[in-house]
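Possible regression after last week's pipeline update?

I re-ran a chain I had predicted before the update to compare outputs. Posting the input and the new output here so someone can diff against the archived version. Not blocking, just want to make sure nothing changed silently.
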Amino acid sequence: MDDRKKDQSIQSHANFDGDSATGDRTQIRQDQQNQQPPQIDPSLADAQAVAASLGVDPNTGLSQAEAERRLAQYGPNELASAPPVPKWKKFLAQFKDPLVYLLLAATGISLIAWFIEKANAAPGAEGGEILPFDAIVIVLILIVNAVLGYIQESKAEEAVEALSQMTAPQTNVLRDGKIARINTVDVVPGDMVVLGEGDSIPADGRLLAAASLRVAEASLTGESVPVGKNVDTLAEAKALGDRANMVFNGTSVTQGTGRAIVTSTGMRTQVGKIADLLQATDDDDSPLQKEMNYVSKILGIAVCIIAAVVLVALALTEGFNDIHDVIDSLLLSVSLAVAAVPEGLAAILTVVLALGVRRMAEHHAIVKKLHSVETLGSASVICSDKTGTLTRNEMTVERVVTPSGEVQLTGTGYAPEGRMIAIPDAALSGSAASAAQVEAVATLAVGSLANDGELRETVTFGAVEAAGDLVASSSAWEAVGDPTEVSLIVAARKVKADRKYANYTRVGEIPFTSDRKRMAVVAQDNTDAGRLTVFAKGAPDVLLGYCGRIAVNGAVRPMTQGDRQQILAAVERLSAEAYRTLGQAYRPLGTASLTDVPGVRINAAGHVADIAEQSDVLESDLIWVGMVGIIDPPRTEVRDSVAEAHRAGIRTVMITGDHPLTAARIASDLGIIDATGAADLGSTVLTGTQLDELPDEAAFDNATRNISVYARVAPEHKLKIVESLQRQGNIVAMTGDGVNDAPAVKTADIGVAMGITGTEVTKQSAKMILADDNFSTIVEAVREGRGIFDNIRKFLRYLLSSNVGEVFTVFGGVMLAGFLGITQPGSQGVTVPLLATQLLWINLLTDAAPALAMGVDPSTDDVMARKPRKLTDRVIDGQMWGDIIFIGLIMAAVTLIGMDMHLAGGLFTDRSVDAVGHDAQMTEARTMGFTILVFAQMLNALCSRSHDQSVFVGLFANKWLWGAIALSALLQVVVIYVPFLNTAFGTMPLSAGAWVECLGLAMVVLVASELRKCVLRAMRE
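New output (post-update):
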């Protein structure tokens, strides 16, 4: 083959399955796609034709040099990803917040006004500042907030990266006529992959050889039972799960061996197409982010209105005589604007969410984005995949049906722990029950012998004893091979049935195929002169056709038509209960040599021909012993989690690719639907085909509004279901582990991936990862999220009411300056009641520690006993605005009254101040107002813990809050009594009588709040 023809054949690999992936992940990938000619589906082409088109000899594979050339040309076998975001961009992204924009705008205006003031004001003029302290401190607060957010998100990314760091996968390929083991990323189109039991399939490929090959495709299709594979060319195009001659990236071999020629790698595989589907879904803001954007918008409008009102009022009352009046008014407007915005809100919100993330990490949940914690707390629907999420993904034998009766096995999963018990509703006499148990042991023994699976125990060693011996601290059981076969081994060990035939050694096998639907082994009894016995298992209806006898109560007799009907009825009953059934049978051959068995064919060399070709002889006249019912059981803890979610008003929806009967059974066991619904599939379960038949979007929405179980669905169905639920106003959480879950996981308001069994694509698309794959952790996340949302409301109520109190104080002080004695008759210009440095100090003092302490406030009620909040519910609703304005007015009133008491000419003037100059009066009055406002806000922190619950309920539950109040009070005392701080903040020491006035007036806020709450409780009752 010349180089030109070779290049043409090589280029045929990329989209051999005919399904062109959408979207361009990288420029390299785009270039690769541009050079790919259209191709047919390889499942419809002969295997040799596929090999020829890819320029490879199936007998020798690619040469190493050719493989390296293809790797260089087409890139590694891995999913493409967007280039990493530089650290500096991640840091700047922390400033992408409307509230931050508002603060930066106010800071810029303040800075400009400060420059103008410095350029025009006379030295020593009142209000002049050496540095623009307001602007500097606000910018510092914003930088601290950005650093906190950057560090926290970096830690979350590192945790996610740690989860994805597993042993580098390797693959066996045929290179230069020899089998070589290479890294999976180095697999190229045209490679001959050698498959064996337990191998992960590295890329999409067309099978060229298959011997009893079965592949677990649950991560791709959702099918919990391994799929049989063959090399036959399909007559027509079929769905992904029905392409029996194809293997797919991300799946694994559970049984048998095979060879496949790689047709697609990396982003051109089926997994890659799903990864591309993710790019069609955009990240949306979380509900909390949307609410904070709304709050920022409201604050921005309020700031503009306040500034405009002040400027107009001053222009009408005082007039603007020169540039100094304009600057003073502008600075006052900016001060009011800055006072209206809690500078520490963004930083406090970040810290509170970060603390929630840390608590979630302690519960084995890695949250990738801070806002995701609160979002899950707002979830109204949790959509979950079945296999591996709600179930253990560990096939388990639960029922054994024998000719004498039926028994049940306890225990789930691969740990051989459990026992045999009678079926509660089985009316069996003592002798029949005993016979049923004996026959059940024999049934499981046959199943464990006619078996290619393996059960391994992995022991973790802990401490070392004094003698130097390691002490086993824990153990885990691992299934090797087909999970169905391993389930039989586990069941046999539970009842010690494996000991029944411990002396038998396998000497031959007639393997399982999708056509035969059964397998058999020939084993010799080492304690009985090596006599041979055939042990078989398979689909009951098929195996029955080869059985002429039946073992009943220790005796073997001919099988009657009534026996067959009874067995088939039991098969139908178990199938209706979502069990997968397997029958077991045996046949003693009565000889130690197969050559002595009548009908067995001998080859020319005098040896027994391949017994796989003599199943008609060896599998005849079998003795039926019983059958088992196998199911992938639900996780034991999930039922309680579903019930807790239901109590919290959260609907659980199951979305799976499995059979409708299985889905209904598991949903019923978990309480997602009731037993009546499980019996009536038509009204409780919808399949992907039925969803496709719905005429329009309205019908689809109506279906998702009423149905909670979906079976046999494709990835696009899962995506449509999530989008439909979101259209109905739900906040949707989607859990999953397989690749087929990834698009829906990303589209959901919060996607939750499994950390252990989850595929890499799903982890990348999720906002939260469960490190322990425990569905119950989601309930804890909901509880945590709701608690965080409650605390966010608490500190918002506190911060905004305190800041509104400052605004009303300044606004009222300016508007009523003459009435309160703040300005003297005949004076010109604007005199502010509180200095800018004092307002800034109040914000720093009260916006930091107390608000942060409220962010970890314990819940005042059972957060799981109420319904989820709706999308239309505001973080700051009408009730909270009422709290904010009421407390702000009271706070401003007591502050201005306290100042008025120390100013000559005011309403409540203490006449003893007449002998003191006005400047000294203002210093004392400002110190009074300054201190009253600080302590009023400290008491407001206690009041803001609830809208209508008394402050004395759980008064000392939050020790952090009391510590913050104590620290703030101490710092305020320092500002009043330390001389150089008196100069910096314009304060003076207060007398004991003045302290009594300050504390007494501040207490009015608490009293007024308690009276209002009493009225609210009375109105509610």
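Follow-up from reviewer: compared with the archived run. Residues 322 and 829 are 10 Å apart (CA to CA). Marking as no regression found.
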